[in-house]
Amino acid sequence: MLSSQIKSNEIVFGSCNKNLLEEIIFYGIGLGADFVEIFIENTDNSSVLAEEDFITSVSPSFGRGAGIRIFKEKKDGFVSTNDLTRNGLMRSVSQAIEMLDIIDNKKREVFNGLNKHRDYSLSKKKWINEVPSIHEISEKLLVSTKSLKKNNKIITRKGSYSRNLQEVIIASSDGTYVSDIRLHQTVGLNVIASDAQYRSSGSRRFGSSGMPNEFRLWDHEKAANDVFESSMNMLYADYVDAGQMPVVLANKFGGVIFHEACGHLLETTQIERGTTPFENKLNEKIAHESVTAIDEGISEGSFGSLSVDDEGMEPEKSVLIKDGILKKFISDRAGELRTGHKRTGSGRRQNYSFAAASRMRNTFIAKGDYSKEDLISSISDGLYCKSMGGGSVGATGQFNFAVEEGYLIKNGKLTNPVKGATLIGEAKEVMPKISMCGNDLELAPGFCGSISGSVNVTVGQPHIKVDSITVGGR
Amino acid sequence: MDPREITTQISEAADSLKLKKWDYGASFSNDYSVQVDKGEAKQLKASQKQILTLRVWNHFNLVGITTTSDISESGIKKALKQANIASDFGNKNESTEFSPLAKDPIKVMEIKKRCPVGIKKLLTLLREAEVKLIESHESIKSVPYNGLSESFFERVYANSDGAFRSYTKSQAALYLYARAEEKNKKPRSSGSVKLGYGVEDIDIESCIKDASNKTISHLNYSSIKTDKYLICFSPESFLTIINAFSSMFNARSILDGVSLSNKNSIGEKLSTEALNIYDDGLHEKNISSSPFDGEGTPTRRICLISKGRIENFIHSESTARIFKTIPTGHAGLGSKVSVSPDWIVVEKSEENSDLKTTLDHSTYEGEFVYIEELNAIHAGVRASQGSFSLPFDGWLCKNGKKISIESATVAGDIKYLFKNIVNIESSQEVTTSGISPHIWVDELSITGDA
Q1: Which of A294-308, A370-384, B178-192 has the lowest mean pLDDT?
Q2: Which one of B127, B259, B385 makes the best mutation probe of the A interface by having the most chain A beta carbons within 10 Å?
Q3: CA distances from B155 to A61, B29, B170 (A)
Q4: A450: phi > 0 → left, psi -120 to 50 → alpha, else beta; which?
Q5: Which comes out higher in pLDDT, residue A470 or A378?
Q6: Greatest Cα-to-Cα distance within chain B, rounded to the nearest angstrom
Q7: CB-based burial of residue B103 (10 Å sphere; 0-12 exposed, 13-18 middle, 19+ buried)?
Q8: Which pLDDT score, from 0 to 100, does residue B211 have?
Q9: pLDDT band (50, 70, 90) for residue B447
Q10: Residue A235: Cβ within 10 Å count
């Protein structure tokens, strides 16, 4: 008896929660909110680390919580809690209302109840039983780290796997009522090579969404060879000489340049802050005419794909830049409210403790007509960035990112490996200098940290040539 | 929930699952924060969080772990079961035990209890701060990054051997990053962060003044020629570098092969004899101090570099056992226990006769680059290789005049940097990540686009 009473008064995943959600939303609207949104999640995550020939860490984790957001005009109040009972959620609504200092109880928005439940999770409930077991993961990671043991210069070998399974319920006063299950898996290999005073490292990460079998299909031998080769190539590399030079950025993770340099500046959160130079540039040329850039959440299996965003909207394919002309911003609910740019299904958050914000998903520069060789042969003295590290963009638009694996270009040919390079610039100055795009577009997974936490994304591009950029070095 | 009750619940659930050895770390927090935009509330946030990390040891003394935010009876039982399953995959190569110091007395700082001031008060204070900052100079047009927050939390560690310790604390933070614009010039931005135990402890006026002065000081800028320069690191930027390369003093990193140091590095000369570096988590100025680490070991001051030589490493229980020493209070609870520094204190030792004491950032008239703040640490530091290449905010100083440097990076090698320290100023400054004087380093590479 006690058990059933508790259940009727709290959110239960896998059950119909419509009445309780409606009651909470009615409560918020009744207190004077313009808009009420409830985001509830239940997570089941696990990670495994293999070092040398041992499993050194297995970390399961579980979480559940709710984020409640109330809008009054353009202001919003956000409250997060681990308490998913009726009382706990009502208390959170009250707290958000109180924060916004809503005293006008006369003007009330109308809430007509929740729409028919859109359940994107139906075909996904079996995923938890289809993902590899810890035992299976451990065995494959150990085989992978063993594959990295190719000579005695390799002094550390690591393989890591993580799986995030997130079940979400989203309901809001515009009638949205959605459930979904998201599955993200990543696996990575890292080595450090050393010989006397020389040191280098190599790493590669792979990731997918919504594909429980993906880890089993992962070609660990190919990945290990790639990581090993990269670390060996860089072991005796000289430091790059600093200066201005043309660069060719490789495909896949090379796309981090667009993500950092331009993508963030096309999020409506940046318009809200007044920190993007592109705010009033819609339909104006902001990049070289060879550049078309896209942000979308629909490529099957890509790390940044989603059936529905964290505000209950299906993701759209957004052409951000078409032939150098700015066409669209990446927008969420608050972005639409505050800047007027229509939502694009890009309202994303790390978890329930963050309010959603406009965030990139799968973001890439579209392919062009050139081969990689065309790009390299067009440069007499420059840098080829084969593998990129992380990067960041500052408050006034300056970006920088590290080159993990680089090679000098001399007279149109790749020559010596170089290390220690950092690419530095400003988006509005670099975008017009992307003069050639290759025909070999590929995406790569990554994690993007910003205002609403760390979210899964892909970056991508074909090989591209930047006519001139500052390369930091020694 | 009362931590003693949770401990009892865990103990009973562990008994029912026949798990004899366990420990846990937990934290419970209530946080409140506000952001404003041109006088209007932008986002107001409140959160209630609880997180419990449980470890269990199985019959083979292998450890399994689980983290959960569900501390109901069923949640705790589920976590224990999962931890027990995970223990089948426990690290056979390196055992983990309770810290031998988990029952030693801890030093809890006597701090007056602060109460929440509430969202409305936070909002009023931040609105006023934003207005004052914008009004402080005609070129400051907005404060795009701002926030005022207060946090109240409790941390607990307990184990099946009877160890139990907890402490409660509060912390408040204010950050203001202004954006200045002038005609035909690029926008410039800078800011300031202040911490306190409560909102009433934060010197808001000084945060506004710092943010304003820093932002204005970057209005006149110029690019810099790529070359090697004499550098003066601000206390904040030097601490950033030390923290980024703290794996040099980290026993976990040494065992993992990702440190520049090795087991035999104690005594290695890194720098001028004038340099001392400590980790002092219990320093009275450390607002974020914690009296014990993730394994329940008491926090303590430890000397990392004494007179230019490596003196100690920081440890968890297991690394200390391997190094045949005692834990130092730097462990983070996890399936693989992490080790990290708390609060770095840099000072000039008594052996300082080799320093060029004429180098003083406020009086030196020769040419030097003053690095105020280093950026993008996650992208530009290769701790395992010792190299860094980092964008920075700073000035080129000469003849008593200074001009802000436009988009440049400083690059080098940490051991080279240590060796090339030519002066350590006498006066230390307190920052949000530690205490340090200004540090002068000769011949570091700067890349600019002049």
Answers
A1: B178-192
A2: B385
A3: 19, 9, 11
A4: beta
A5: A378
A6: 76
A7: middle
A8: 97
A9: confident
A10: 19
Which tens digits make up the pLDDT trace of A321-347?
999 999 999 999 999 999 999 999 999
- Burial call B373-392: b when 16+ CB within 10 Å, e when fewer: bbbbbebbbbbbbbbbbbbb
Backbone φ/ψ region at B376: left (φ over 0), alpha (ψ -120 to 50), beta: left
Half-sphere exposure of A302 (CA within 13 A, CB side): 23
Predicted TM-score of the model (pTM): 0.91
**How many other CB atoms are there within 10 angstroms of residue B122's CB atom?**
26
DSSP code for B8: H
- Residue A416: which H helix or E strand, with range? strand A413-419
**Residue A439 DSSP code:** S
Torsion of CA A377, A378, A383, A385, to 10 degrees: -70
Q: What is the largest CA-CA distance in chain A?
A: 81
* Residue A363 DSSP one-character state: E
For residue A260, the chain B residues in CB contact (below 8 A) are none
The one-letter amino acid code at B148 reads L
Please answer whether residues A473 and A242 qualify as being in contact, where contact means their C-beta atoms are separated by less than 8 angstroms: yes
State whether residue B195 is helix, strand or coil.
strand
For range A209-236, the mean pLDDT: 95
Sign of the C-alpha dihedral, residues A284, A363, A400, A420? negative
Distance (Å, whole) CA A309 – CA A316: 10
Closest CA to A361 of A410, A299, A405: A299
Closest CA to B446 of A73, A202, A306, A472: A472
ipTM of predicted complex: 0.87
d(CA A333, CA A430): 30
CB-CB under 8 Å, A134 with B85: yes
Q: Which two tokens stand for residue A404?
A: 């993990």
Whether residue B402 is predicted with pLDDT greater than 80 in this model: the reply is yes
A472–B409: do the CB atoms touch at under 8 Å?
Answer: yes
Least CB-CB distance to B409: which of A239, A424, A426?
A424
The residue among A238, A150, A255 whose CA lies nearest residue A200 is A238
Whether B35 and A273 have beta carbons less than 8 Å apart is answered as no
Q: Determine the length of chain A.
A: 474
A264 and A474 Cβ atoms separated by less than 8 Å: no
Beta strands in A95-197 (DSSP E): 118-119, 154-172, 177-195
Half-sphere CA count of B70, side-chain side, radius 13 A: 21
| Mean pLDDT calculated for residue range A53-66 | 94
Query: Is the separation of the CB atoms in B27 and B154 below 8 Å?
Result: yes
CA distance A217 to B85: 26
Phi, psi of A193 (to 5 degrees): -110, 145
Taking residue A327's Cβ as centre, other Cβ atoms within 10 Å add up to: 16
Which helix (H) or strand (E) segment is A87 a member of? Answer: helix A86-100
B365 at interface of A, judged by CB pairs closer than 8 A: no
Task: Name which of B335, B336, B387 is nearest A420 (Cβ-Cβ).
Answer: B387
Q: What tokens appear for A320 in the block?
A: 């951000």
Measured between CB atoms, which of A155, A192, A389 is closest to B379? A389
Query: Cα A222 to chain center, whole Å?
Result: 25
pLDDT tens track for B91-145: 888 889 999 999 999 988 888 889 999 999 999 999 999 999 999 999 999 999 9
Each residue's pLDDT tens digit, A81-132: 999 999 999 999 999 999 988 766 666 788 999 999 999 999 999 999 999 9
Give yes or no for a contact between B93 and A56, defined as CB atoms under 8 angstroms apart: yes
Sign of CA dihedral A84, A87, A90, A92: negative
Helix B73-87 × helix B3-16 angle, to 10°: 50
Cα separation, A24 vs A95, whole angstroms: 13
